[in-house]
Each structure stands twice: as structure tokens, then as C-alpha cells.
# Entry
Amino acid sequence: MIALASGASLASVLRLRSAPAVQTEFRPEKLGIALLGLGDYATNWLAPAIAQSTYGKVAGIVTGSPDKISTWQEKYSIPDSGVFNYENLEDIASNKDIDIVYIVTPTGLHHKFAIRALEAGKHVICEKPMAPTAEDCTRMIDAARKADRMLQIGYRLYWEPHHTRVMTAMRDKEFGKWESLETAFAGRMKDFDDPKNQWRIDKELGIAGALYDLGVYAVQAGFYTTQQHPIRVTATSSTDRKEIFNEVPEHWDWELEYADGRKSIHWSSYGKNGNHLKMATAEGSLEIERAYGYSGQSGVTPVGKMSFEDVFQQTRQIDGQLLAIHRRNANVVPGEMGRRDIRLINAVMESADSGKSVELGKFDY
# Structure
């Protein structure tokens, strides 16, 4: 198995129309994935996706919940040697059946577990958003380079047909220059007493609430639609339900300004609903509704309605990421991309806290 492929630039990533779902002529032995964190997303989405993938298999688990172990072992035929906890993660180094650790914990823990897994000699796929700060992201990237292992971020929409259609259209300037853009991912949530949601409003684990959990999609969409780096951000945050949101804000809004004077609007919230990408181009509208969910996207371009069927996004993502580890495809979602997005999110927080615009300077990806 060949290890590290270097991170691609933003331009080179967007030359990829979409990663192929299946390459039937390439049938290597499946790579073993250990899921670290066995919450809802790992249980109901990632593990089934890996089980259905062409190039991967569930080979291990890392969990702090002993009561979950037997169920996972039975369902995915995981031997005792493939079971680890958060304290003995370093022992995974000796398990030759595990090639990759997939980090699926709350955001505040991503960087610590990712670095430990990389130092144990495993490739890492880390769920979005990458880490609390850009400095944490850099530590992860440095650990991957030192270990000569690949670090990828769980940005599944790089394999979703509606979004790859938008990426391609904007990369190729198919509909001329963009004139306006709004991206939003938000949802009114009430069940924060549920253990699976408590971390979302915890400053240590969720960092800034909806801005990290949902807003990262709006940040991503801004980059791959405009094909530009913003130069300035102006942001606000606010809270209506103060009895719930006493550690993180409930609502986030930010405006990005670009070197040519154009501006884009973005927002995220746990208190209102929004799930769209809306761009006006010289030749008409380019839009995706229900944009960031696991299914159900619908879209239009200036030449008509997009006519894509739903796909199992996570399976396509897994196969695309494993092909990158096999060096059959580029790493389209490297750590450098994740750091870029966290850097912008950190600037949104800084602007909202200070009440002033923040100059972004030069991006390195």
C-alpha cells in the first residue's frame, strides 16, 4: 500500500468533475477502517457506507462506550484485536488489518485523536469541521507529513452530483461571472437534552455551535462557487433562546468581500431553518435546495433543472478517499482545505466578537 499523496491546490481540486463511484478494473484488497467515536453518524451512516463500499471494510472500533462493543463486533465481524478505547489508541499501531482511523467525535476532540492516530502510523479521515483552530489544523497536517500518512476531511459533497455540477460549471465559467451568492445551512433545534446533541452547544466540544457544525457547509460552498478567496469578512452573532444558548451563540451571519468588490452572504443557525445555495450568474440562476443534507437535493442551472438521482453520498466519499490512499485519485479534500475553512470560521468569530470587519490576508490553499 502506498502512503502519502500531497494536498492539491484549490484550482487542481476543482478540475475534478467528480470522483468516480466505481472503478471495476481496480480490485485491490479492501482497506481496513477503524471508526473512532460510535455516535449516530458513525452508526447509521458511515459504517453502512463502508460496508457497501468497493474499497473499504470496517476493521475496528475505538470507543469510550463499552456497552456498544458487542453489537459492533457482531454486526461487522470485528475481532477482539480490532477493539480499542480512547486510552489505548496508540496500541492500534500493531494492528496490521487497520489502515485508516476515521475520527467521528465532537469537533473539540478531532485534533487530539487525529494526531494520535497519525503517530500510530495510520491514515486519518477526520469529520468536518477539521478542528477548533487553524493552529490545531496545522498540527494535524504536520503530524501527517511526519508520519508519511494521508490526512483527509469528511467533505462528502465533493462526491454529490448536484454540487460537483456547480463546481464544474463555475470552474469552467460556463454561465459567465457570478453576480451574487447566498449560502445557508441552519435548522431550528430543540432537543439539546438528548445526549447526542448536548455537545453542540458546549463551548469546549462544539466550539461555536451552528457556525462549526452547520456553517462549515456554507463556508465550503462559498469557496467552490466563487472560485475565489475573500479578502474581508464582516460578521454578527446573536441569541434568542438565552436559557439554552449560554455558551455559544444561536445565530451566525457573515458577509464576504472579494478583491473585485463583489460580496456574498452566508448564515447558519440552530434557531431558524435554511438549507440552500443560491447564485446569480451573468446567464441566470445556479441553485441547490436542500443543499447539504444526506439526500434530497434539487437544483437548477441557467439551462434547466438538474436531473440527478440520489446517491449514497457517504459510500461515494469513502471510495473516493480510499482511491486517493491507493494513489489512483488525487486527495480532493486534504487537511490544507480543512485548515482554510477553519481559518475563515475563526475570522467570522473574531469579527462577530469585535464588531469590526476582519482582513483575511493571503490563503495558502
In short: Residues 1-23 have pLDDT under 50 and may be disordered. The first strand starts at residue 31 and ends at 36. Residues 335-354 form the longest helix (20 residues).
